[in-house]
Amino acid sequence: MSKRLPSLHALQAFEVAASSGSFKIAAEKLAVTPTAVSHQIRSLEKQLGISLFIRSNKGVVLSAEGVQIAPVLRQAFSEIYRVIEHVTDSKKRLVLSTTPAFASQVLGPLLVDFYQQYPDYEIAIQTETRQCDLKSDASLDFAIRYSGKDILGLDRYHLLDESFSAYLAPFTSCTDELPFIHTLWQQSVLENVNWQNWNRQANDRVANRRVIGFSEEEQVLQAGLSGKGIVLVSSILVAYYLEKKLLVPFYKDTMLPGGCYQLYCRENDLKKKDILIFLSWLKTALSDLR
Hints:
This protein is of the alpha/beta class.
């Protein structure tokens, strides 16, 4: 095998094709033709002396060698993009991954105050519910997730505990006819947060009625705000709407325990100045929600 490094274009074509699982999709992302992607990858395979993909009439899948190389390239390109952004941007940019509901209902409104205090910083938010891989994705600086567990190679900081209660819009009438609405949780830690357990906790004071489930907690919250039902939601996500009297408690003394929000970052990153600044601000900003 030649000691000369392959071309950057060929390596990028392979990395994008490996991530997408398709030469066609890779071509669309790179703004070239599928033939050009195929040619780049063929040239790369020839230079390396290995097959990176197994080709068939059904498409392409990574070979054993491709499986080894792809994540290394993905991390390398992420780090290149991150460094370039850092040196060319006058603002100090931090990239945070968190859930859609926490981003829109908690973090988003609070960031206005952060920017007023720290105008030289920019916080880019990526939203997803699955656990992100901070160890291999260099484009992320930290993540906020609904979890209490340790993750090897990552530091974590406890942010908030939460509970779940029932709420409804103050203008709703005929509450006996309103359905119960809750979230169909993906996290096992919340599998007991449902209307059956809430009613049991309430000593069966509420007659059985229709139960509607949504896949996202934000959808449940919006249904409650529009008066479509009685919703079972997080005490953290509902704090703003209680303060503005857009929602009111339904059987205030009945609640179910939830989990906790944790901030995760790479090992020893909690000592970095930029992350310490954001974390110190965030702890203060969230103190009213505890």
